TrEMBL record, chain A:
It comes from Planotetraspora kaengkrachanensis. InterPro entries: AAA+_ATPase, ABC_transporter-like_ATP-bd, ABC_transporter-like_CS, BCAA_Transport_ATP-bd_LivF, P-loop_NTPase. This is ABC transporter ATP-binding protein. One of its GO terms (molecular function) is ATP hydrolysis activity. GO terms for biological process: L-amino acid transport. Residues 4-237 form the ABC transporter domain. PROSITE patterns: ABC_TRANSPORTER_1 (PS00211), ABC_TRANSPORTER_2 (PS50893). Keywords: Amino-acid transport, ATP-binding, Nucleotide-binding, Transport.
TrEMBL record, chain B:
Belongs to the binding-protein-dependent transport system permease family. LivHM subfamily. It comes from Planotetraspora kaengkrachanensis. This is Branched-chain amino acid ABC transporter permease. GO terms for biological process: amino acid transport. It is a multi-pass membrane protein. The keyword Ion transport does not apply. It comes from the Bacteria. Keywords: Amino-acid transport, Cell membrane, Membrane, Transmembrane, Transmembrane helix, Transport. It is found in: Cell membrane. PANTHER family: ABC TRANSPORTER PERMEASE PROTEIN (PTHR11795:SF450), BRANCHED-CHAIN AMINO ACID TRANSPORT SYSTEM PERMEASE PROTEIN LIVH (PTHR11795).
TrEMBL record, chain C:
Residues 290-315 are annotated as: Disordered. SMART domains: AAA (SM00382). This is ABC transporter domain-containing protein. Residues 292-305 have a biased composition (Basic and acidic residues). PANTHER family: ABC TRANSPORTER ATP-BINDING PROTEIN, CONSERVED COMPONENT OF ABC TRANSPORTER FOR NATURAL AMINO ACIDS-RELATED.
């Protein structure tokens, strides 16, 4: 049974339909990349999965349970952690406070929280150096590490990353790719939502391509990358970049 | 104005300002977490005091001397009534209009919480007005600070006098204010509240109980308002309708201190109290201007306040 | 009974005035009672100073209008909640002032003037005694006049401005509507009507007392204006009926339960106020069932099909940025950006998310003040010119998100753009009095609107309800509104978001048509297929700097561009 199974998901913003019959799944321990341009509905998928957006129909199964209408708190508790786009750190809190909040639901078990925090520091040594610094003063790449680390603090079995590469320098993107690979190696499945084709191709086991709210392509990374439609989708017909 | 009179005015201004500061702290705290300007906030002060008095005395207020049990009971009741009223205002008048999961708007229904906040305040005033029909009432003092010295007053250098109670109000008010501010910085609940105020969506995604934290903020704000009422009401006669202007003055204090900053609100309250006290003591302006000047300050600060993208009160240019 | 009727009719004037700001302007104004006070106390003092009654009323209304304009300007930049707070504070400030100056207010007793009043005209040699029935006639006439004026204004240019102020102030600014001045003018009208109402009530009752113009009255009038909810003419009337019902209901309730009558009236007001926010949505849904009766002017015959006239025939560089540095707060977004947009060209600005494309566009449109560098419009330095001025100079932008005016037909929305781009002085007032020159202006504006609709292929949908337009058509409508301002330079922020394939093709046609007409188009876009299909020139931004700039071929060949778009392991080149 798949870890995350999204079936026939439809969603709208007010009267405007954004998602239409979106289906895909994520197995335990794999990386699935959800690709698509601006306005394709990627972020809405993430928001629907994590309980921020009520879908108009369809269902989201996680770990064998129907979480379609659960609130975010229950979903985090169940082991799905959503790291939203835009590097949303709590700027006036320190790195350490940001991380601690990530384990809010387990905050009674102080030593467990401390252990997980050390794990995050091991994955992101840069954060350990800056643990007493305010999150707002970190660089873009460090803030991205921090939100991912914060998302890991709830010890999730699935991490949903929304556009982690947006606005990062190429060097930071390379580091990010290694970090995501390390997270998967530690046993956490990742749903990677990206526009950055190269990052997705490098990391993902399978790709799901979204266009105007529909899934237009999905399959193993090699198969999708070889499909001429992906090039056309990104660069159009008769485009000199090809 | 002679030095002695000035010192006297300064100290009574600090006492008044402590109360404004406590009310403003709650106002700022609520604003920080929800973006809601709590129009009923001033009425919590008056509501807390009168509910406490009505319950303890069992009758309309008289400036009775209370025994210890009744004093403690009254003090606790006033603070608790403020907190309870505040929680009620949140649940009935604010919460239905806040943005929630699945809502389209990110800012909620502004006109909704403005109107229902005004309505909640009016309802508190009018319901109390059914029982309390006079313009103003003298309220008993549960703290009995005046009885610390035989005369209840201290001589000041320069010829003025100050009531011991005034010093007590400053001491208690500032102590509680600073304590609450520190608790909000140092405790995990305070950290969680800060997280909610900075990014409610990210906080919700981490499993923080956003709604419950907001309720806690309203309860703390209401308790602070009740405490402010407890501190200042025995010094003056209090009327049911005084709450609105009290609330508006606290908003002025919160704005002067930088809206959303709890520490700034306390400082702003002190500043406003001292200004008001000097206005009243001055021979040019006098007591008539006690309400006029703070309200004018509120209008000016609102109109000319911080510009730019991050200003919470100005329209976003986008 | 007659006195009460006259009283309520006078109050209706105040409610109608308030509805202008609340329902039409979208500002929660909570100080109408204060302006009533200006009228009531003003008329008594001015009469004592020797003015005849009519002149005193007029003067009081003028004073209130000035005060209203001032308060309006002070609050015009604020968010709704802050407007509510400052007007509420203003109501209490005026109340505190009345309390502080018994010489002005007559203390708690108020100021008394003899009743019944006599209107005396030496010129005509007649004297009219204002009996209660005469008051009913005066107040009733004023109400009907205000209703008629509002109805006429809504259908004219003012109606366009109001819809934009209420529903999308940012859009209004981007189209050149002076939002602050419009809001202040609305506020002034609101205040003047309140003063007339206050003066009338004072003359009717023969007394002006502070307790009659307390902030509670402001709240009640606000409730009355809110109950109507949306911009409907019958709204204020209905609202006042509810308010008028409160005292008798309060009396009845008081009789039944044994409470003091005035107290129960206050409780009822509070309950009405509580009910309003909960009832607002159903009321608005009800109101939405009757859409604004839009006039459907026939399209002028000479403009049909593709015969769109070019707007500009100027050659060369229209808008250029030289070494532009832009930051938001502490963060630097753009550093040293050079950019040239030429007439008759589509210039695409591309780059990864967060590279500063939208910021560049906002800076060029005057919405952001650059920290360094220059912006030139042809030869003129326009660095630091506001958005408003840029629209007047012919530079208009669109937004990344779809900003809708849900109640206006596409035709009217496009007219709003025409009005913003080529303003007509005092258009609203001239329209109100049916000035002949306004009809010419209207005809010209209509032609401009149709031109914009044809260029953007929306002419078929001109009178459809905006809600029935598809997402792509909504995006085109944004372009149409900007085109209608008569812009020589269009700054378009991701117009293709949410468009389907055929809609993108339509957009490409529109862009080419605009360029062929001589317009300089700066296109911020993610969709590279669209960009490479239409652009004459491409600038690539990366983290706030220009990475490459030139023809589509040269940028496509640029290794740095290929790296950020395709990455090292280039998948598309392996199978291309």
């Amino acid at each position: 049974m798949a870890l995350l199974d999204v079936r026939g998901l439809c969603a709208r913003h007010g009267a405007v339909p954004v998602l239409d019959d979106v289906c895909f799944h994520v197995e335990r321990g794999e990386i699935v990349a959800l690709l698509g341009g601006n306005g394709a509905g990627k972020t809405t998928v993430a928001r629907a999965v994590s309980g921020l957006h009520r879908p108009s129909s369809g269902e989201v199964m996680f770990d064998g349970r129907d979480i379609t209408r659960c609130d975010p708190r229950r979903i985090v508790q169940g082991g799905l952690s959503h790291v939203p786009d835009g590097r949303r750190v709590f700027p006036s809190l320190t790195v350490e406070e940001n991380l601690t909040l990530g384990a809010y639901l387990d905050s009674r078990r102080k030593n467990v929280v401390a252990e997980r925090r050390e794990d995050v520091y091991r994955t992101f040594p840069r954060l350990a150096e800056r643990r007493a610094q305010r999150a707002g003063s970190l660089s873009g790449g460090e803030q991205q590490m921090l939100v991912i680390g914060r998302g890991l603090m709830s010890d999730p079995s699935l991490l949903v990353l929304d556009e982690p590469s947006a606005g990062l320098a190429p060097a930071s993107i390379a580091a990010l790719a290694e970090d995501i690979a390390a997270i998967r190696a530690a046993g956490t499945a990742v749903l990677l939502i990206e526009q950055h084709l190269q990052l997705a191709l490098r990391l993902a086991d399978r790709l799901v391509v979204l266009q105007e709210g529909h899934v237009v392509l999905s399959g193993s990374t090699a198969a999708v990358a070889a499909d001429p439609r992906i090039g056309r989708m990104y660069f159009g017909d008769g485009n000199p970049l090809q | 104005m002679s030095g002695g009179v000035a010192l006297q005015a300064f100290l009574s201004g600090l006492a008044l300002g402590t109360a404004y500061g406590l009310i403003a702290m709650g106002f700022s705290l609520v604003y920080r977490l929800t973006g809601v300007i709590s129009f009923a906030h001033g009425d919590l002060v008056v509501g807390g005091v009168f509910i406490g008095v009505l319950v303890v005395l069992g009758s309309i207020p008289v400036a009775a001397a209370l025994d210890v049990v009744h004093s403690v009971g009254l003090a606790v009741l006033i603070v608790a009534a403020g907190a309870a009223l505040s929680a009620g205002v949140y649940l009935v008048a604010v919460r239905p209009f806040l943005p929630g999961v699945g809502h389209r708007s990110t800012r909620g229904d502004v006109l909704g919480w403005v109107a229902s906040g005004l309505a909640a305040g009016l309802l508190i005033r009018e319901v109390l007005g059914l029982v309390l029909t006079q313009d103003a009432y003298a309220v008993p003092d549960p703290l009995r600070l005046g009885s610390l010295t035989p005369s209840g007053v201290l001589q000041l250098p320069g010829g003025g006098t100050v009531a011991v109670r005034t010093l007590g109000v400053i001491g208690i008010g500032l102590a509680v204010g600073i304590l609450v501010e520190r608790l909000l910085v140092l405790t995990p609940v305070g950290t969680a509240m800060k997280a909610v105020s900075e990014d409610p969506t990210a906080a919700a995604l981490l499993g923080l109980p956003v709604r419950r934290l907001v309720l806690v903020a309203f309860v703390v704000a209401g308790a602070l308002a009740g405490l402010a009422g407890l501190l200042i009401s025995p010094d003056r006669s209090l009327g049911v309708d005084d709450g609105v202007v009290l609330g508006l003055k606290a908003m002025a204090a919160a704005l002067v201190g930088g809206l959303g900053s709890v520490r700034g609100a306390l400082a702003g309250g002190l500043a406003l109290g001292v200004i008001e006290s000097f206005v009243v003591a001055s021979s040019v302006l006098g007591p008539h201007y006690a309400d006029v000047v703070p309200l004018a300050i509120l209008l000016i600060v609102l109109a000319l306040g911080r510009r730019g993208l991050r200003s919470p009160l100005r329209e976003d240019p986008e | 009974m007659t006195v009460e009727l006259a009283h309520h009719l006078y109050l209706l004037i105040a409610v109608l005035g308030l509805a202008l700001s609340v329902s039409y302007g979208g500002q929660p104004v909570l100080c109408q009672g204060a302006f009533l006070a200006v009228g009531g106390f003003g008329v008594v003092h001015l009469e004592r100073a020797g003015l005849p009654l009519a002149a005193a009323t007029f003067a009081a209304a003028a004073i209130a209008a000035c005060a209203g304009y001032l308060v309006g300007l002070l609050t015009a930049r604020l968010r709704g909640a802050a407007v509510a707070l400052s007007t509420w504070a203003f109501a209490w400030l005026v109340y505190a002032l009345l309390d502080a100056f018994p010489a002005v207010s007559g203390g708690s007793q108020g100021l008394v003037r003899p009743t019944p009043a006599r209107l005396n005209s030496p010129f005509f040699g007649v004297t009219v005694t204002l009996t209660p029935w005469a008051h009913v006639a005066v107040a009733g006439t004023l109400c009907l006049l205000s209703l008629a004026a509002v109805a006429r204004l809504t259908r004219g240019p003012a109606g366009l401005d109001w819809a934009a102020l209420r529903e999308a102030p940012a859009l209004a600014t981007s189209l050149g509507v002076p939002v602050l001045r419009r809001r202040a003018a609305l506020f002034a009208t609101t205040a003047a009507l309140a003063a007339v109402s206050g003066a009338g009530i004072t003359v009717l009752l023969g007394v002006a007392a502070p307790s009659d113009v307390s902030p509670l009255l402001s709240l009640q009038l606000f409730v009355a204006a809110l109950i109507g909810g949306t911009a409907r003419l019958w709204g204020p009337v209905l609202g006042l009926l509810v308010i008028a019902m409160i005292p008798p209901l309060g009396d009845a309730l008081a009789g039944a339960v044994g409470l003091p009558a005035e107290a129960s009236g206050g409780v009822l007001t509070a309950l009405a106020l509580v009910a309003v926010p909960f009832l607002r949505e159903p009321i608005e849904r009800l109101a939405a069932q009757w859409p604004e009766r839009a006039e459907r002017p026939r399209e002028p015959a000479e403009h049909s099909g593709e015969s769109a006239t070019p707007t500009a025939s100027r050659e060369g560089v229209m808008l250029s940025a030289q070494g532009l540095d832009v930051g938001i707060g502490e963060t630097d977004i753009l550093t040293g950006v050079d950019l040239e947009v030429r007439a008759g060209e589509v210039h695409a600005l591309i780059g990864p998310n967060g590279s500063g494309k939208t910021t560049a566009l906002r800076a060029l449109a005057g919405a952001l003040r650059p920290k360094g560098g220059r912006i030139l419009l042809e030869e003129t330095d326009v660095t630091g010119a506001g958005q408003f001025e840029m629209v007047r100079r012919g530079v208009t932008r669109t937004f990344q998100r779809t900003v809708g005016l849900e109640r206006l037909s596409p035709h009217r929305q496009v007219l709003l753009g025409v009005r913003g781009g080529t303003p007509v002085p005092f258009a609203a007032v001239r329209h109100l009095f049916g000035s002949a020159s306004m009809q010419d202006h209207a005809a010209i504006a209509d032609r401009e609107a149709w031109r914009a609709l044809h260029v953007t292929e929306l002419a078929q949908r001109a009178f459809d309800r905006p809600g029935t337009l598809g997402a792509g058509e909504q995006r085109l409508l944004q372009v149409a509104r900007a085109v209608a301002t008569g812009a020589h330079v269009l700054l378009l922020d991701e117009p293709a978001v949410g468009m389907t394939g055929p809609e993108r093709a339509a957009l490409a046609r529109v862009l080419r048509r605009l360029a062929a007409g001589g317009v300089a188009v700066l296109l911020v876009e993610h969709d590279l297929a669209l960009v490479y299909g239409v652009a004459d020139r491409i600038t690539v931004l990366d983290r706030g700097r220009v990475l490459a700039s030139g023809t589509p071929e040269s940028t496509a060949a640029d290794p740095a561009v290929r790296r950020i778009y395709l990455g090292d392991a280039d998948p598309s080149s392996t199978h291309a």
